[in-house]
Amino acid sequence: xxxxxxxxxxxxxxxxxxxxxxxxxxxxxxxxxxxxxxxxxxxxxxxxxxxxxxxxxxxxxxxxxxxxxxxxxxxxxxxxxxxxxxxxxxxxxxxxxxxxxxxxxxxxxxxxxxxxxxxxxxxxxxxxxxxxxxxxxxxxxxxxxxxxxxxxxxxxxxxxxxxxxxxxxxxxxxxxxxxxxxxxxxxxxxxxxxxxxxxxxxxxxxxxxxxxxxxxxxxxxxxxxxxxxxxxxxxxxxxxxxxxxxxxxxxxxxxxxxxxxxxxxxxxxxxxxxxxxxxxxxxx
Amino acid sequence: xxxxxxxxxxxxxxxxxxxxxxxxxxxxxxxxxxxxxxxxxxxxxxxxxxxxxxxxxxxxxxxxxxxxxxxxxxxxxxxxxxxxxxxxxxxxxxxxxxxxxxxxxxxxxxxxxxxxxxxxxxxxxxxxxxxxxxxxxxxxxxxxxxxxxxxxxxxxxxxxxxxxxxxxxxxxxxxxxxxxxxxxxxxxxxxxxxxxxxxxxxxxxxxxxxxxxxxxxxxxxxxxxxxxxxxxxxxxxxxxxxxxxxxxxxxxxxxxxxxxxxxxxxxxxxxxxxxxxxxxxxxxxxxxxxxxxxxxxxxxxxxxxxxxxxxxxxxxxxxxxxxxxxxxxxxxxxxxx
Lengths: 284, 337
What we know:
- Chain A has 284 residues and is mainly alpha-helical.
- Chain A is built from eleven helices and two strands.
- Chain A has one domain.
- In chain A, 75% of the residues lie in helices and 3% in strands.
- A two-stranded antiparallel ribbon of chain A has the order 1-2.
- In chain A, helix 2 runs parallel beside helix 6 (120-147) and helix 6 (120-147) packs across helix 7.
- In chain B, helix 5 runs parallel beside helix 6.
- Chain B has a six-stranded mixed beta sheet with strand order 6-7-8-3-9-10, with helices on both faces. In chain B, strands 2-1-4-5 form a four-stranded antiparallel beta sheet, with helices on one face. Chain B has a four-stranded antiparallel beta sheet with strand order 12-13-11-14, sandwiched between helices.
Protein backbone atom coordinates (compact mmCIF):
# COMPACT_ATOMS: atom_id res chain seq x y z
CA UNK A 1 0.00 0.00 0.00
CA UNK A 2 1.22 3.50 -0.85
CA UNK A 3 1.81 5.79 2.12
CA UNK A 4 0.12 9.22 2.10
CA UNK A 5 3.52 10.95 1.84
CA UNK A 6 4.50 8.83 -1.15
CA UNK A 7 1.13 9.48 -2.73
CA UNK A 8 1.51 13.25 -2.33
CA UNK A 9 5.04 13.07 -3.75
CA UNK A 10 3.76 11.11 -6.73
CA UNK A 11 0.96 13.61 -7.26
CA UNK A 12 3.43 16.50 -7.13
CA UNK A 13 5.70 14.73 -9.57
CA UNK A 14 2.84 14.17 -11.98
CA UNK A 15 1.64 17.74 -11.77
CA UNK A 16 5.21 19.00 -12.30
CA UNK A 17 5.57 16.74 -15.34
CA UNK A 18 2.34 18.09 -16.77
CA UNK A 19 3.39 21.69 -16.12
CA UNK A 20 6.75 21.08 -17.83
CA UNK A 21 5.08 19.38 -20.79
CA UNK A 22 2.68 22.33 -21.16
CA UNK A 23 5.51 24.85 -20.87
CA UNK A 24 7.63 23.25 -23.58
CA UNK A 25 4.67 22.56 -25.89
CA UNK A 26 3.41 26.12 -25.54
CA UNK A 27 6.90 27.53 -26.20
CA UNK A 28 7.30 25.43 -29.35
CA UNK A 29 3.80 26.31 -30.59
CA UNK A 30 4.42 30.01 -29.90
CA UNK A 31 7.55 29.85 -32.02
CA UNK A 32 5.56 28.49 -34.99
CA UNK A 33 2.92 31.22 -34.63
CA UNK A 34 5.61 33.93 -34.36
CA UNK A 35 7.06 32.62 -37.61
CA UNK A 36 3.61 32.74 -39.21
CA UNK A 37 2.94 36.30 -38.03
CA UNK A 38 6.25 37.53 -39.38
CA UNK A 39 6.02 35.56 -42.62
CA UNK A 40 2.29 35.40 -43.32
CA UNK A 41 2.72 34.33 -46.97
CA UNK A 42 1.90 30.70 -46.07
CA UNK A 43 -1.36 31.78 -44.50
CA UNK A 44 -2.28 34.10 -47.37
CA UNK A 45 -1.35 31.60 -50.11
CA UNK A 46 -3.25 28.88 -48.25
CA UNK A 47 -6.43 30.96 -48.43
CA UNK A 48 -5.85 32.55 -51.82
CA UNK A 49 -5.39 29.35 -53.79
CA UNK A 50 -8.67 27.67 -52.75
CA UNK A 51 -10.42 31.01 -53.09
CA UNK A 52 -9.37 31.20 -56.72
CA UNK A 53 -10.59 27.64 -57.19
CA UNK A 54 -13.91 28.53 -55.63
CA UNK A 55 -14.45 31.65 -57.70
CA UNK A 56 -13.15 30.33 -61.03
CA UNK A 57 -14.65 26.85 -60.88
CA UNK A 58 -17.86 28.20 -59.44
CA UNK A 59 -18.11 30.61 -62.40
CA UNK A 60 -17.10 27.95 -64.91
CA UNK A 61 -20.13 25.82 -64.15
CA UNK A 62 -22.47 28.62 -63.05
CA UNK A 63 -24.79 27.99 -66.00
CA UNK A 64 -24.85 24.20 -65.70
CA UNK A 65 -28.38 22.84 -66.27
CA UNK A 66 -30.50 22.66 -63.11
CA UNK A 67 -31.02 19.22 -61.63
CA UNK A 68 -27.69 17.99 -62.93
CA UNK A 69 -26.20 17.62 -59.46
CA UNK A 70 -27.60 15.43 -56.67
CA UNK A 71 -30.40 17.12 -54.68
CA UNK A 72 -30.65 19.85 -57.32
CA UNK A 73 -27.98 21.94 -55.62
CA UNK A 74 -26.05 24.69 -57.43
CA UNK A 75 -22.53 23.96 -58.56
CA UNK A 76 -21.18 26.68 -56.27
CA UNK A 77 -22.64 25.00 -53.21
CA UNK A 78 -21.49 21.59 -54.47
CA UNK A 79 -17.98 22.92 -55.01
CA UNK A 80 -17.86 24.74 -51.63
CA UNK A 81 -17.49 21.52 -49.61
CA UNK A 82 -14.72 20.30 -51.91
CA UNK A 83 -12.79 23.54 -51.64
CA UNK A 84 -13.12 23.67 -47.84
CA UNK A 85 -11.69 20.16 -47.59
CA UNK A 86 -8.99 20.95 -50.12
CA UNK A 87 -7.97 23.98 -48.04
CA UNK A 88 -7.64 21.96 -44.84
CA UNK A 89 -5.93 19.11 -46.70
CA UNK A 90 -3.33 21.38 -48.37
CA UNK A 91 -2.61 23.17 -45.12
CA UNK A 92 -2.12 19.93 -43.21
CA UNK A 93 0.01 18.43 -45.96
CA UNK A 94 2.50 21.24 -45.34
CA UNK A 95 2.76 20.37 -41.63
CA UNK A 96 6.03 18.56 -42.13
CA UNK A 97 7.84 21.48 -43.75
CA UNK A 98 8.82 23.39 -40.57
CA UNK A 99 10.01 20.12 -39.02
CA UNK A 100 12.00 19.30 -42.13
CA UNK A 101 13.66 22.73 -42.09
CA UNK A 102 14.48 22.26 -38.39
CA UNK A 103 16.09 18.95 -39.24
CA UNK A 104 18.07 20.43 -42.09
CA UNK A 105 19.28 23.55 -40.28
CA UNK A 106 20.14 21.73 -37.06
CA UNK A 107 17.46 23.46 -34.97
CA UNK A 108 15.95 20.09 -34.12
CA UNK A 109 19.24 19.15 -32.47
CA UNK A 110 18.90 22.24 -30.26
CA UNK A 111 15.52 20.92 -29.12
CA UNK A 112 16.84 17.41 -28.63
CA UNK A 113 19.71 18.40 -26.32
CA UNK A 114 17.21 20.14 -24.04
CA UNK A 115 15.79 18.04 -21.17
CA UNK A 116 12.28 17.97 -22.65
CA UNK A 117 9.75 16.23 -20.43
CA UNK A 118 8.58 14.42 -23.54
CA UNK A 119 9.83 14.78 -27.07
CA UNK A 120 6.22 14.30 -28.16
CA UNK A 121 5.92 18.02 -27.40
CA UNK A 122 7.75 18.69 -30.68
CA UNK A 123 5.09 16.73 -32.60
CA UNK A 124 2.27 18.06 -30.45
CA UNK A 125 3.27 21.67 -31.14
CA UNK A 126 3.22 20.98 -34.89
CA UNK A 127 -0.21 19.35 -34.65
CA UNK A 128 -1.66 22.26 -32.63
CA UNK A 129 -0.19 24.83 -35.00
CA UNK A 130 -1.24 23.18 -38.23
CA UNK A 131 -4.72 22.38 -36.91
CA UNK A 132 -5.30 25.99 -35.90
CA UNK A 133 -3.91 27.25 -39.21
CA UNK A 134 -5.94 24.83 -41.34
CA UNK A 135 -9.15 25.59 -39.44
CA UNK A 136 -8.53 29.31 -39.78
CA UNK A 137 -7.99 28.99 -43.52
CA UNK A 138 -11.06 26.76 -43.90
CA UNK A 139 -13.21 29.23 -41.95
CA UNK A 140 -12.01 32.02 -44.25
CA UNK A 141 -13.11 29.96 -47.25
CA UNK A 142 -16.45 29.15 -45.61
CA UNK A 143 -17.02 32.85 -44.96
CA UNK A 144 -16.19 33.75 -48.55
CA UNK A 145 -18.41 30.97 -49.88
CA UNK A 146 -21.25 32.32 -47.74
CA UNK A 147 -20.70 35.80 -49.18
CA UNK A 148 -20.82 34.34 -52.69
CA UNK A 149 -24.24 32.92 -51.83
CA UNK A 150 -23.17 29.30 -51.46
CA UNK A 151 -24.79 29.01 -48.01
CA UNK A 152 -23.68 28.47 -44.40
CA UNK A 153 -24.23 25.33 -42.32
CA UNK A 154 -26.41 25.56 -39.21
CA UNK A 155 -25.00 25.09 -35.68
CA UNK A 156 -25.09 21.28 -35.82
CA UNK A 157 -23.82 21.42 -39.41
CA UNK A 158 -20.94 23.63 -38.32
CA UNK A 159 -20.06 21.14 -35.59
CA UNK A 160 -20.02 18.36 -38.18
CA UNK A 161 -17.81 20.45 -40.46
CA UNK A 162 -15.36 21.07 -37.60
CA UNK A 163 -15.25 17.42 -36.50
CA UNK A 164 -14.72 16.25 -40.08
CA UNK A 165 -12.01 18.81 -40.73
CA UNK A 166 -10.26 17.99 -37.46
CA UNK A 167 -10.14 14.29 -38.30
CA UNK A 168 -8.84 14.99 -41.78
CA UNK A 169 -6.25 17.50 -40.55
CA UNK A 170 -4.99 15.09 -37.87
CA UNK A 171 -4.65 12.28 -40.40
CA UNK A 172 -2.87 14.37 -43.03
CA UNK A 173 -0.65 16.05 -40.41
CA UNK A 174 0.45 12.61 -39.21
CA UNK A 175 1.25 11.65 -42.79
CA UNK A 176 3.18 14.85 -43.43
CA UNK A 177 5.17 14.62 -40.18
CA UNK A 178 6.01 11.03 -41.00
CA UNK A 179 7.28 12.11 -44.41
CA UNK A 180 9.25 14.97 -42.84
CA UNK A 181 11.21 12.47 -40.75
CA UNK A 182 11.45 9.79 -43.42
CA UNK A 183 12.57 11.84 -46.43
CA UNK A 184 16.13 13.14 -46.77
CA UNK A 185 15.35 16.82 -47.40
CA UNK A 186 12.80 19.55 -48.10
CA UNK A 187 13.14 19.20 -51.89
CA UNK A 188 11.85 15.63 -51.68
CA UNK A 189 9.08 16.63 -49.26
CA UNK A 190 7.90 19.47 -51.49
CA UNK A 191 7.97 17.09 -54.47
CA UNK A 192 5.72 14.63 -52.62
CA UNK A 193 3.36 17.46 -51.64
CA UNK A 194 3.17 18.67 -55.24
CA UNK A 195 2.57 15.19 -56.61
CA UNK A 196 -0.06 14.28 -54.00
CA UNK A 197 -2.02 17.51 -53.89
CA UNK A 198 -3.90 17.92 -57.17
CA UNK A 199 -4.36 14.23 -58.14
CA UNK A 200 -5.98 13.59 -54.76
CA UNK A 201 -8.28 16.56 -55.35
CA UNK A 202 -9.29 15.44 -58.84
CA UNK A 203 -9.70 11.81 -57.77
CA UNK A 204 -12.30 12.78 -55.19
CA UNK A 205 -15.86 14.11 -55.23
CA UNK A 206 -14.60 17.69 -54.67
CA UNK A 207 -15.28 18.89 -58.22
CA UNK A 208 -17.78 16.36 -59.56
CA UNK A 209 -20.07 13.65 -58.18
CA UNK A 210 -19.22 9.97 -58.57
CA UNK A 211 -21.93 9.55 -61.21
CA UNK A 212 -20.01 11.85 -63.59
CA UNK A 213 -16.86 9.73 -63.44
CA UNK A 214 -15.72 6.72 -65.45
CA UNK A 215 -15.77 3.50 -63.45
CA UNK A 216 -12.03 3.42 -62.67
CA UNK A 217 -12.02 7.01 -61.44
CA UNK A 218 -15.24 6.39 -59.50
CA UNK A 219 -13.47 3.58 -57.65
CA UNK A 220 -10.50 5.82 -56.89
CA UNK A 221 -12.73 8.64 -55.70
CA UNK A 222 -14.79 6.28 -53.55
CA UNK A 223 -11.61 5.08 -51.81
CA UNK A 224 -10.03 8.52 -51.50
CA UNK A 225 -10.01 9.80 -47.88
CA UNK A 226 -10.84 13.31 -49.13
CA UNK A 227 -14.19 12.02 -50.36
CA UNK A 228 -15.03 10.82 -46.84
CA UNK A 229 -14.43 14.35 -45.59
CA UNK A 230 -16.17 16.13 -48.47
CA UNK A 231 -19.46 14.24 -48.32
CA UNK A 232 -20.32 14.93 -44.63
CA UNK A 233 -19.47 18.62 -45.13
CA UNK A 234 -21.63 18.75 -48.25
CA UNK A 235 -24.43 17.15 -46.26
CA UNK A 236 -23.94 19.70 -43.46
CA UNK A 237 -24.58 22.47 -46.00
CA UNK A 238 -27.67 20.78 -47.40
CA UNK A 239 -30.00 20.89 -44.43
CA UNK A 240 -31.00 18.97 -41.28
CA UNK A 241 -28.19 16.74 -40.06
CA UNK A 242 -28.70 12.98 -40.40
CA UNK A 243 -25.53 10.95 -39.99
CA UNK A 244 -27.32 7.74 -40.82
CA UNK A 245 -28.25 9.00 -44.28
CA UNK A 246 -26.41 7.55 -47.27
CA UNK A 247 -23.98 10.21 -48.46
CA UNK A 248 -22.10 8.25 -51.06
CA UNK A 249 -23.29 5.55 -53.43
CA UNK A 250 -19.90 3.97 -53.92
CA UNK A 251 -19.23 1.07 -56.32
CA UNK A 252 -18.62 -1.17 -53.30
CA UNK A 253 -21.81 -0.12 -51.45
CA UNK A 254 -23.54 2.77 -49.74
CA UNK A 255 -21.60 4.92 -47.30
CA UNK A 256 -23.40 6.82 -44.53
CA UNK A 257 -22.27 9.95 -42.68
CA UNK A 258 -21.30 7.87 -39.63
CA UNK A 259 -19.24 5.54 -41.83
CA UNK A 260 -17.42 8.51 -43.33
CA UNK A 261 -16.47 9.82 -39.89
CA UNK A 262 -15.44 6.35 -38.66
CA UNK A 263 -13.27 5.82 -41.72
CA UNK A 264 -11.56 9.17 -41.08
CA UNK A 265 -11.12 8.29 -37.40
CA UNK A 266 -9.55 4.91 -38.19
CA UNK A 267 -7.37 6.54 -40.82
CA UNK A 268 -6.13 9.08 -38.29
CA UNK A 269 -5.41 6.47 -35.63
CA UNK A 270 -3.81 4.18 -38.22
CA UNK A 271 -1.52 6.89 -39.54
CA UNK A 272 -0.40 7.97 -36.08
CA UNK A 273 0.32 4.33 -35.20
CA UNK A 274 2.17 3.94 -38.50
CA UNK A 275 4.48 6.90 -37.94
CA UNK A 276 5.02 6.23 -34.23
CA UNK A 277 7.99 3.84 -34.62
CA UNK A 278 9.61 6.31 -37.03
CA UNK A 279 9.12 9.23 -34.63
CA UNK A 280 10.38 7.13 -31.72
CA UNK A 281 13.49 6.26 -33.67
CA UNK A 282 14.17 9.78 -34.90
CA UNK A 283 13.44 11.49 -31.61
CA UNK A 284 15.00 8.93 -29.28
CA UNK B 1 36.68 14.14 -9.08
CA UNK B 2 35.86 13.33 -12.69
CA UNK B 3 32.76 14.97 -14.15
CA UNK B 4 32.95 13.21 -17.51
CA UNK B 5 34.04 9.65 -18.02
CA UNK B 6 33.96 8.25 -21.53
CA UNK B 7 35.12 4.65 -21.66
CA UNK B 8 36.01 2.70 -24.79
CA UNK B 9 33.64 4.68 -26.99
CA UNK B 10 33.48 3.45 -30.57
CA UNK B 11 31.35 4.89 -33.33
CA UNK B 12 31.34 4.15 -37.05
CA UNK B 13 29.42 5.77 -39.89
CA UNK B 14 29.06 2.90 -42.32
CA UNK B 15 32.59 1.73 -43.00
CA UNK B 16 34.23 4.87 -41.59
CA UNK B 17 35.33 4.65 -37.96
CA UNK B 18 34.91 8.03 -36.26
CA UNK B 19 35.85 6.90 -32.76
CA UNK B 20 37.94 3.87 -31.82
CA UNK B 21 37.69 2.91 -28.15
CA UNK B 22 38.09 6.52 -27.05
CA UNK B 23 38.78 7.03 -23.35
CA UNK B 24 38.41 10.47 -21.83
CA UNK B 25 38.28 11.67 -18.23
CA UNK B 26 37.45 15.31 -17.54
CA UNK B 27 37.91 16.56 -13.96
CA UNK B 28 35.24 18.81 -12.46
CA UNK B 29 35.88 22.56 -12.37
CA UNK B 30 38.46 22.85 -15.13
CA UNK B 31 38.53 23.98 -18.72
CA UNK B 32 39.37 20.89 -20.71
CA UNK B 33 40.52 21.26 -24.30
CA UNK B 34 40.11 18.68 -27.02
CA UNK B 35 42.64 19.38 -29.73
CA UNK B 36 42.71 17.63 -33.06
CA UNK B 37 42.36 18.24 -36.77
CA UNK B 38 38.98 18.27 -38.50
CA UNK B 39 37.74 14.72 -38.86
CA UNK B 40 39.64 13.47 -35.79
CA UNK B 41 36.40 12.55 -34.00
CA UNK B 42 35.97 15.56 -31.67
CA UNK B 43 32.46 16.44 -32.87
CA UNK B 44 31.32 12.81 -32.77
CA UNK B 45 32.59 12.50 -29.17
CA UNK B 46 30.77 15.69 -28.20
CA UNK B 47 27.54 14.65 -29.91
CA UNK B 48 27.64 11.37 -28.00
CA UNK B 49 28.26 13.28 -24.77
CA UNK B 50 25.33 15.60 -25.56
CA UNK B 51 23.08 12.54 -26.04
CA UNK B 52 22.49 13.39 -29.70
CA UNK B 53 24.20 10.27 -30.90
CA UNK B 54 24.41 6.75 -29.50
CA UNK B 55 27.83 5.09 -29.54
CA UNK B 56 28.21 1.64 -31.08
CA UNK B 57 29.90 0.55 -27.85
CA UNK B 58 31.34 1.97 -24.65
CA UNK B 59 29.98 3.89 -21.69
CA UNK B 60 29.23 7.55 -20.96
CA UNK B 61 29.03 8.82 -17.40
CA UNK B 62 28.46 12.51 -16.65
CA UNK B 63 28.28 13.73 -13.07
CA UNK B 64 27.82 10.15 -11.92
CA UNK B 65 24.84 9.68 -14.25
CA UNK B 66 24.84 6.99 -16.93
CA UNK B 67 24.32 9.05 -20.09
CA UNK B 68 23.06 6.11 -22.12
CA UNK B 69 20.50 4.96 -19.54
CA UNK B 70 19.39 8.38 -18.23
CA UNK B 71 20.01 10.86 -21.05
CA UNK B 72 17.46 13.39 -19.75
CA UNK B 73 19.36 13.79 -16.47
CA UNK B 74 22.57 14.40 -18.40
CA UNK B 75 20.84 16.99 -20.61
CA UNK B 76 19.67 18.80 -17.48
CA UNK B 77 23.17 19.36 -16.17
CA UNK B 78 24.78 20.17 -19.50
CA UNK B 79 24.83 23.15 -21.85
CA UNK B 80 25.78 22.20 -25.40
CA UNK B 81 26.92 24.69 -28.01
CA UNK B 82 27.22 22.93 -31.35
CA UNK B 83 29.73 23.72 -34.07
CA UNK B 84 27.03 24.81 -36.50
CA UNK B 85 25.00 27.63 -34.94
CA UNK B 86 21.36 26.61 -35.26
CA UNK B 87 19.15 29.63 -34.80
CA UNK B 88 15.70 30.56 -36.00
CA UNK B 89 16.22 33.51 -38.33
CA UNK B 90 12.67 34.76 -37.87
CA UNK B 91 12.88 35.08 -34.09
CA UNK B 92 14.76 37.81 -32.26
CA UNK B 93 17.68 36.82 -30.07
CA UNK B 94 15.59 37.48 -26.96
CA UNK B 95 12.74 35.28 -28.23
CA UNK B 96 15.20 32.49 -28.95
CA UNK B 97 16.55 32.72 -25.39
CA UNK B 98 13.00 32.72 -24.02
CA UNK B 99 12.26 29.58 -26.02
CA UNK B 100 15.44 28.00 -24.70
CA UNK B 101 14.45 28.93 -21.14
CA UNK B 102 11.07 27.26 -21.59
CA UNK B 103 12.66 24.12 -22.99
CA UNK B 104 14.71 23.95 -19.78
CA UNK B 105 11.55 24.67 -17.75
CA UNK B 106 12.84 27.83 -16.08
CA UNK B 107 10.20 29.82 -14.19
CA UNK B 108 9.32 33.02 -16.08
CA UNK B 109 10.98 35.47 -13.64
CA UNK B 110 14.15 33.45 -13.38
CA UNK B 111 14.25 33.13 -17.16
CA UNK B 112 13.96 36.89 -17.70
CA UNK B 113 16.58 37.69 -15.01
CA UNK B 114 18.97 35.20 -16.49
CA UNK B 115 18.46 36.54 -20.02
CA UNK B 116 19.14 40.09 -18.80
CA UNK B 117 22.32 38.92 -17.06
CA UNK B 118 23.63 37.09 -20.13
CA UNK B 119 22.77 40.01 -22.45
CA UNK B 120 24.91 42.15 -20.20
CA UNK B 121 27.79 39.69 -19.85
CA UNK B 122 28.00 38.94 -23.56
CA UNK B 123 27.40 42.56 -24.63
CA UNK B 124 24.33 41.68 -26.71
CA UNK B 125 22.15 44.62 -25.65
CA UNK B 126 22.39 46.58 -28.90
CA UNK B 127 21.07 43.85 -31.12
CA UNK B 128 19.26 41.22 -29.01
CA UNK B 129 15.79 42.43 -30.09
CA UNK B 130 16.64 42.31 -33.78
CA UNK B 131 15.79 39.22 -35.82
CA UNK B 132 18.52 36.58 -35.72
CA UNK B 133 18.65 36.52 -39.51
CA UNK B 134 20.42 39.89 -39.43
CA UNK B 135 23.22 38.77 -37.06
CA UNK B 136 26.88 38.38 -37.98
CA UNK B 137 28.73 35.13 -37.24
CA UNK B 138 30.11 36.55 -34.00
CA UNK B 139 26.67 37.70 -32.79
CA UNK B 140 25.17 34.29 -33.58
CA UNK B 141 27.94 32.54 -31.70
CA UNK B 142 27.49 34.75 -28.65
CA UNK B 143 23.74 34.16 -28.72
CA UNK B 144 24.31 30.43 -29.02
CA UNK B 145 26.67 30.52 -26.07
CA UNK B 146 24.10 32.48 -24.03
CA UNK B 147 21.51 29.81 -24.90
CA UNK B 148 23.86 27.10 -23.69
CA UNK B 149 24.41 28.93 -20.39
CA UNK B 150 20.84 29.99 -19.69
CA UNK B 151 20.00 27.20 -17.24
CA UNK B 152 23.33 27.55 -15.35
CA UNK B 153 24.70 24.17 -16.43
CA UNK B 154 27.30 22.37 -14.35
CA UNK B 155 29.02 21.38 -17.58
CA UNK B 156 29.36 23.48 -20.72
CA UNK B 157 30.31 21.64 -23.90
CA UNK B 158 31.54 23.80 -26.77
CA UNK B 159 32.32 22.42 -30.18
CA UNK B 160 34.77 24.71 -32.00
CA UNK B 161 33.28 27.86 -30.45
CA UNK B 162 35.45 30.46 -32.14
CA UNK B 163 35.81 29.14 -35.69
CA UNK B 164 35.66 32.03 -38.16
CA UNK B 165 35.03 34.68 -35.49
CA UNK B 166 36.31 38.25 -35.42
CA UNK B 167 38.83 39.15 -32.72
CA UNK B 168 36.27 41.03 -30.60
CA UNK B 169 33.85 38.10 -30.44
CA UNK B 170 36.62 35.62 -29.82
CA UNK B 171 38.00 37.71 -26.98
CA UNK B 172 34.51 38.14 -25.44
CA UNK B 173 34.02 34.37 -25.52
CA UNK B 174 37.45 33.61 -24.07
CA UNK B 175 36.85 36.08 -21.25
CA UNK B 176 33.48 34.56 -20.42
CA UNK B 177 34.87 31.03 -20.44
CA UNK B 178 37.59 32.04 -17.96
CA UNK B 179 34.94 33.62 -15.69
CA UNK B 180 32.80 30.50 -15.88
CA UNK B 181 35.64 28.22 -14.86
CA UNK B 182 36.52 30.57 -11.98
CA UNK B 183 32.89 30.30 -10.85
CA UNK B 184 33.12 26.50 -10.83
CA UNK B 185 31.61 25.49 -14.19
CA UNK B 186 33.39 22.71 -16.02
CA UNK B 187 34.01 23.56 -19.66
CA UNK B 188 34.83 21.04 -22.36
CA UNK B 189 35.99 22.81 -25.48
CA UNK B 190 37.05 21.34 -28.80
CA UNK B 191 39.26 23.26 -31.13
CA UNK B 192 41.73 22.87 -33.91
CA UNK B 193 43.32 26.20 -32.95
CA UNK B 194 46.51 25.49 -31.00
CA UNK B 195 46.67 28.96 -29.49
CA UNK B 196 43.09 28.68 -28.22
CA UNK B 197 43.70 25.44 -26.35
CA UNK B 198 47.07 26.71 -25.12
CA UNK B 199 45.55 29.96 -23.82
CA UNK B 200 42.46 28.51 -22.19
CA UNK B 201 42.87 24.88 -21.23
CA UNK B 202 43.90 23.68 -17.76
CA UNK B 203 43.88 20.12 -19.03
CA UNK B 204 43.72 18.79 -22.55
CA UNK B 205 43.68 15.75 -24.78
CA UNK B 206 44.87 15.42 -28.33
CA UNK B 207 42.59 13.34 -30.52
CA UNK B 208 43.67 11.78 -33.75
CA UNK B 209 41.82 9.22 -35.86
CA UNK B 210 39.22 8.64 -33.16
CA UNK B 211 41.62 8.03 -30.28
CA UNK B 212 43.19 10.07 -27.51
CA UNK B 213 46.89 10.10 -28.30
CA UNK B 214 48.12 12.44 -25.55
CA UNK B 215 46.62 13.80 -22.34
CA UNK B 216 47.67 16.25 -19.61
CA UNK B 217 48.07 19.98 -19.07
CA UNK B 218 49.53 21.91 -22.04
CA UNK B 219 52.74 22.53 -20.05
CA UNK B 220 53.06 18.89 -19.02
CA UNK B 221 52.65 17.72 -22.59
CA UNK B 222 55.29 20.12 -23.86
CA UNK B 223 57.70 19.35 -21.02
CA UNK B 224 57.27 15.64 -21.56
CA UNK B 225 58.57 16.04 -25.09
CA UNK B 226 61.84 17.67 -24.10
CA UNK B 227 64.43 18.82 -26.64
CA UNK B 228 64.41 21.93 -28.81
CA UNK B 229 62.53 22.50 -32.01
CA UNK B 230 64.17 23.69 -35.18
CA UNK B 231 62.42 24.80 -38.33
CA UNK B 232 64.80 24.76 -41.23
CA UNK B 233 64.66 25.72 -44.89
CA UNK B 234 67.23 25.31 -47.64
CA UNK B 235 65.16 27.43 -50.00
CA UNK B 236 62.19 29.77 -49.57
CA UNK B 237 59.86 27.36 -51.35
CA UNK B 238 61.34 23.90 -51.59
CA UNK B 239 59.80 20.73 -53.05
CA UNK B 240 59.12 17.20 -51.87
CA UNK B 241 62.23 15.66 -53.46
CA UNK B 242 64.59 18.25 -52.04
CA UNK B 243 63.00 18.05 -48.60
CA UNK B 244 63.33 14.26 -48.61
CA UNK B 245 66.97 14.60 -49.60
CA UNK B 246 67.63 17.03 -46.71
CA UNK B 247 65.85 14.75 -44.26
CA UNK B 248 68.02 11.82 -45.35
CA UNK B 249 71.12 13.93 -44.69
CA UNK B 250 70.06 15.14 -41.25
CA UNK B 251 68.40 12.10 -39.72
CA UNK B 252 71.62 10.14 -39.07
CA UNK B 253 73.30 13.04 -37.21
CA UNK B 254 73.98 12.71 -33.49
CA UNK B 255 71.58 14.82 -31.41
CA UNK B 256 68.83 14.80 -34.06
CA UNK B 257 65.84 12.96 -32.68
CA UNK B 258 63.27 13.46 -35.40
CA UNK B 259 62.97 15.12 -38.82
CA UNK B 260 59.58 15.74 -40.37
CA UNK B 261 58.80 17.36 -43.71
CA UNK B 262 56.23 20.14 -43.23
CA UNK B 263 54.30 20.25 -46.50
CA UNK B 264 52.03 23.09 -45.41
CA UNK B 265 55.01 25.43 -44.90
CA UNK B 266 56.68 25.16 -48.30
CA UNK B 267 58.34 21.80 -47.53
CA UNK B 268 60.32 23.16 -44.61
CA UNK B 269 61.75 20.66 -42.12
CA UNK B 270 60.79 20.38 -38.45
CA UNK B 271 63.49 18.86 -36.30
CA UNK B 272 63.68 17.78 -32.70
CA UNK B 273 67.24 18.22 -31.44
CA UNK B 274 69.19 17.72 -28.22
CA UNK B 275 70.96 20.96 -27.27
CA UNK B 276 72.09 23.98 -29.28
CA UNK B 277 75.39 22.43 -30.38
CA UNK B 278 73.62 20.35 -32.98
CA UNK B 279 72.78 23.50 -34.95
CA UNK B 280 76.36 23.99 -36.17
CA UNK B 281 76.49 20.38 -37.20
CA UNK B 282 73.29 20.81 -39.23
CA UNK B 283 74.68 23.84 -41.06
CA UNK B 284 77.96 22.13 -41.84
CA UNK B 285 76.34 18.95 -43.13
CA UNK B 286 74.00 20.86 -45.43
CA UNK B 287 76.74 23.16 -46.74
CA UNK B 288 78.92 20.15 -47.52
CA UNK B 289 76.04 18.68 -49.53
CA UNK B 290 75.59 21.93 -51.48
CA UNK B 291 72.33 22.78 -49.73
CA UNK B 292 73.19 25.78 -47.51
CA UNK B 293 70.66 26.84 -44.89
CA UNK B 294 68.28 29.55 -46.15
CA UNK B 295 66.45 30.04 -42.84
CA UNK B 296 66.57 28.46 -39.41
CA UNK B 297 64.50 29.10 -36.29
CA UNK B 298 64.94 27.46 -32.91
CA UNK B 299 62.15 27.28 -30.30
CA UNK B 300 60.85 25.46 -27.24
CA UNK B 301 58.28 22.70 -27.90
CA UNK B 302 54.75 23.82 -28.79
CA UNK B 303 51.49 21.89 -28.82
CA UNK B 304 51.93 21.42 -32.54
CA UNK B 305 55.19 19.64 -31.69
CA UNK B 306 53.30 17.43 -29.28
CA UNK B 307 50.93 16.54 -32.10
CA UNK B 308 53.81 16.10 -34.49
CA UNK B 309 55.62 13.81 -32.08
CA UNK B 310 52.54 11.65 -31.60
CA UNK B 311 51.37 11.41 -35.21
CA UNK B 312 54.39 12.16 -37.37
CA UNK B 313 52.70 15.11 -39.07
CA UNK B 314 51.80 18.67 -38.14
CA UNK B 315 48.27 19.69 -37.28
CA UNK B 316 48.13 21.82 -40.42
CA UNK B 317 49.24 18.91 -42.60
CA UNK B 318 46.59 16.73 -40.98
CA UNK B 319 43.99 19.43 -41.77
CA UNK B 320 45.12 19.61 -45.39
CA UNK B 321 45.11 15.84 -45.76
CA UNK B 322 41.57 15.54 -44.43
CA UNK B 323 40.25 18.56 -46.35
CA UNK B 324 40.25 16.72 -49.67
CA UNK B 325 38.58 13.64 -48.23
CA UNK B 326 35.64 15.25 -46.46
CA UNK B 327 32.17 14.68 -47.82
CA UNK B 328 30.18 17.68 -46.58
CA UNK B 329 26.84 16.24 -47.75
CA UNK B 330 27.52 12.98 -45.97
CA UNK B 331 28.47 14.83 -42.78
CA UNK B 332 25.27 16.87 -42.97
CA UNK B 333 23.22 13.71 -43.36
CA UNK B 334 24.96 12.25 -40.31
CA UNK B 335 24.13 15.29 -38.21
CA UNK B 336 20.47 15.25 -39.35
CA UNK B 337 17.90 13.30 -37.41
